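hey so u asked for the seq, here:
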Amino acid sequence: MTQGNIRHLAVCTEGAIFVTPFVFGHNLEHTRACVSGGLSAQLLRNRKFAGRPSARRGVAAEWFGIGKRAFFCTDQERYVRHYKENGMWRRNETNGQTVQNPVEGEKAGIGQEKLYLLKSQAYEIAFVAKCAQDTPVTVTLTDRDCVQVYARETLLVPGGDWQRVQCTLTAPKEDPCGVITLEFTEKREIHFGAVSMLPKGHLHGMRSDVVQLLKEMGVSLLRWPGGNFAGEYRWQDMFLPVDMRAPLQAYTEDETQPYTHGYDMHEIDTDSFVALCREIGAEAYITLNPQWDTVEDCAAWVEYCNGDESTPYGKLRAERGHKAPYNVKMWSLGNEYGYGHMEGPMTPEGYLEHCMPVAQAILKVSPDLNICTAGPYNYEERMDTWIEKSALGFAGVAPMVSFHTYQNLMFDFAQDDAYLRMYGDALAFAEDNRRILHKLRSKLPGHIRISWDEWNVWAAWFRQSCTIEGMHVAAMLHMLLSECEKMGVQYVCYFQPVGEGAIDVLPNGARLSANGQVFKLLCAHKGGKLCSVTGAADPEAVATEKDGVVTLSVINRDFDRDMMYRIRKTGSVIDARCLAARDLLPGSLFDEEAVRLLDCGDEYEFVLPPRCVFRVQMKA
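ran it, structure tokens below
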């Protein structure tokens, strides 16, 4: 490689400006595989028997009935319920599973298959049931054929009202097709209200391995419960025991379908969400449901989070074991009003009229909130109208607007000549987003800031990711680090970390996807001051400085050529590594490789392989 092909880079720390750490924010939305089958540690599917039962059998979806002559139905006794009615009409959220055994001595009950049992893992199993007389119910873990018994315990369900009984069972071997059964032999009727199966060692019902990966990615901000699902969420259901909370059905099937039959089991509440944020070191960002919650209910949620013990809901939080206020400062007035797929007012005038009383009420509860308004600001043809009639109208109480972008990446892995096109499109999306951001910024007054709280390529939740998308994430993060402070972007949330983008959740473990690998590598920039870099094409290189350490990241965007770089020394090298996209196929991960830096006097020289993301840290 000739001298003319070397890129000479220099980092200048003078005049560096602070860049928001919230570039590394994420959504934690109750959609598809993010919570159910993702962050949630719950093994059982449809554990509260939501939806219609099986045809001509009466057994809830995901369950099978036990007993040839037994009778099953889901509409006789309901244990789950909502804390209060709010006008939202959804179907089949409140069911229970009834089992009648007409033959004394024969087995009757319910079971669920395809459970991944881990060797020596203890499982906390519990169920809520109701029967007229004391009835023993045997809980069993078996192989797929229900022949080999791994563990078993018989529990007595007292006669009378609903009772919760529990046991702990341990599988002696790993089995990806395990089965759980709940059986009784008396001639009785039992109503099952909910069944639970959690691995011992979970964090507030969340998987500890997924929580650890969220830490490793440096997640700085979590937006919850949506996104779109904020329009389904009933926050006050948290005041019910977790087993009693009614499942939440989605208004659009895209939200929890196809993984949960359109229902979320409400496993995570405000307390557990805040506990998660504190565990991983992230700030909480909560989206209200102003369409279905009253103004008073929205204000009560803020009071629950931020009020002291002298307030009604602050006192309630303290009684639940959380004396100190949570001090959640970031709140959004719903999500994506005006896009057409949400319930509620679709015009900027209607949204302003509907949500202004909510904004005013929550500010009375907690005056120092940072409130964000919703609207189709990335729909360029409607941007002017929403800014004029919504964002500017809210400016005195909610000086922040929400900004969402998704691009369609047309995959074609069957054609060899399509890879370069896919790769080029993925990297170009960052520039497309920059252009739209600049257009929005040019139309907003300077005091209104931007919450870029959803970004990704479209439909990432329905397919495997690959290193092409990882390179897109790298380009986006470089662009965001470069632009956020200049463009008044205060919050940024990737959509979304668990099960749909950055973390692949498997029955027997979890791993970072290619996207997650990039977040983990580049999160070293979090909380630093943005420095200028000369000698690189934008956004090829980004540098930050924090606590005397300079972090430089470089993207070799070239599809098939190595690139040689020289960087002027700012100090001794602490660490140097790169992620190389040698495999581009679905499910591909980056190869993490050490990079050798050659000492050339006042510069370091290094060579980067094609399609890679590099990071070096130097301490003065």
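The longest helix spans residues 419-443. Residues 65 and 456 are 42 Å apart (CA to CA).
lmk if thats what u needed
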